[in-house]
Structures
1.
Amino acid sequence: MKKNISILAGAALLALSGLASAQETAVGTTTVYLGLAHIDVNSKAPALSGGSKSFPDPGAKIRVGDQTTTGFGLVYRFAENWSGELVLGIPPSHKVYGSGVLQNVGQIAVVRQMPPTAFVNYHFGPLLPKLYPFVGLGVNYTYFEKTRSTATGNAVSGGPTKIYLTNSWGAAAHVGFAVRYNEHWSLVGTAAYADVKSNMRSVTTTNDGEETLRTRINFRPMVYSLSLGYSF
């Protein structure tokens, strides 16, 4: 995580050192951007529950791993200090690991998510020459797809396992900056948080029938992005 923050900070300083003349974004301007987004997942979930046999052992938990993906989006400046923004990206796949008494099991599942987020942003005046900070509040919708159990997950569960996650609506917030090279090109960096919670259900087919386990995952993601923007 420290490495990712250092990369973002270094890129921002490099941009500041080589700026050409720039001006504030005009009302009615649309900006599209493309870059990298690192999703720092700080998941928290109670122990798995619901099995009719010895599994889950008390304290059997899961955690969701981090991921980096390509992010892109669109910003429309509808007032002097206000804009609307739609944040998108290539759906990342996250590895799911055992935790608690399953700490040493390793990867037990994979889940892919699609998390479009809409913001209303407030833009401040320049903090430094050509550096324009902003803050935003919005709403996130996270759609989970292509969840699957690994061979290890099947072995721990006692047979072939299917995993289901409910989709999530939640509040989102971010802070960021735009370094404007000229009226068209800019470097945009953000740090965002979204309230993402999902009910997880795993169904395992065993020799004696089906076993269903449940938990509720609070993903608590922080997303750090750095993108190149083009305004028109």
2.
Amino acid sequence: MPYIDGFVIAVPTANREKFIEHARKLDPIFIELGAIRVIEAWGDDVPVGKVTDFRRSVQATSDETVAFSWVEWPDKATRDAAMKKMMEDPRMDPSSPDNPPMPFDGKRMIFGGFEQVVEVNA
């Protein structure tokens, strides 16, 4: 059963291209380690809710855009093994010259792993 890692991030709107560059540099590592696909999405229609919403979840300011990303794995075992390898991979080290700096505040990123329970295809 596929396993999904999801991420919600507040990115300074001025850093859109840096965000894309960062993703293009690091996302192939997920694929190399067994992910089926990686999606990076830039907020386009992210309304303010009455009780909660994506913007509040990451404390986005008026000069930030919410990005929503996910990594699809074939199963949780593949994901767990990949995460372990990523923690040891020098390409993931923020101090590495090959790793572009995060163009957002990682402390406000929310993330989690999810077991797929329903899939509907066209």
3.
Amino acid sequence: MTYVEILIRTIVAVGLLLLIPRILGKQTLSNMTFNDFVTSITLGSLAANLAFNATLKPSYIVLSLVVITTMSFLLSLLALKSRKMRSWISGSPTVLIENGKVMEANMKKIRYTLDSLNQALRERGVFNIEEVDYALLEDNGRISILKKDAYRLVTKQDMGLPQQAQAFPVELIMDGAVMEDNLKLHGLTREWLEKMLRQKHGGKALVDVFYAVRGTQQQLVFDFYNDGIEQPLDQE
């Protein structure tokens, strides 16, 4: 097997792996279910064989990739059509804590330990299990929690405070490059951006800006190449 053949097979394998998630949808990346987990392992194994296993014809492996992708796509469609099939294909949430009580039977059924539960709670910012009213292990392996009423954060609505309208953040400068399309899409101009920069940071120019964004409250945030921090806490 020549180096050129290995190079070509590897490029084809990577290209197929980049193409397949676009066919299956973004949920495959962000919310991996049982079906997605099996599909990803199988596709990875087939792609590795396509790249390095010279005893297998590339056409056979490409055919297998197409079949696996088609099966996964059809199963996903089936899961959308049938709730019963969705539970079998994608799995279903498991209650770990109910009314503040740990559900030992459910945890034993899915082989989920208290150590794993405590770790998952800490990752959600909960260090005291007594704060949790409900906790569910979702299909994708993540944990969802509902805190007891006494431990929930107070909102503006709770306090009767006026609520301000919010907008989606708009990135204006990325990696030092002005995002002309974003400016045009929101009726903004480079001249306006320069004017606002001078008002907030006199003496600074657009070439000094590494990142700029208009936030949810229409506030402008600028980050500069030169941050003025002489002794950073962490420097690679």
4.
Amino acid sequence: MMNLNQYDYLLVLDLEATCCDQGTIKRHEMEIIEIGAVMVEAQTLKVIDEFQTFIKPVRYPKLTEFCKSLTSITQTQVEQAPEYPEAIAILQKWLSNYSNAVFGSWGDYDRNQFKQDSKFHNLPFPIAYPHVNLKQQFSDSQGLSKRYGMAEALQLVNIELQGTHHRGIDDAKNIAKLLPWILNRQNL
């Protein structure tokens, strides 16, 4: 397990991406359509800042009905959004306010999606902080043999999911609520 207590800030980030339940968008062709992030002060575990942007997809610019239904993100929201390179520049400007941080996401999907989109747009990986898989960290710190989805993990610790599940900013805020258990400051 990574020692997260050595950092001043914990970046909790969640992405939403283009998707389809009919197989028309392949996994390696999915694109980020929302970045949701909260910056957490490591000592207090208080959210001190948040970041959210939609991103205009270019491979499959029209969102599927499944994607809109799952994420609640509208076609208008992505059409009016910056494309990936501009959105990443905005994210990096926001991140520049925070040094000595670690980047955490619920599983490895978000890190891998950033790698995929960055490669497609010929950009370097956008976040300089080391990455930690918070889903695995939660299971390890709580001695659980199973890895739980974010919504299931919230139920396990008796925290109600706030906002809309599968919206990046709402999921990032909900994941941040699990940090006391992830950092082994609380036990089940």
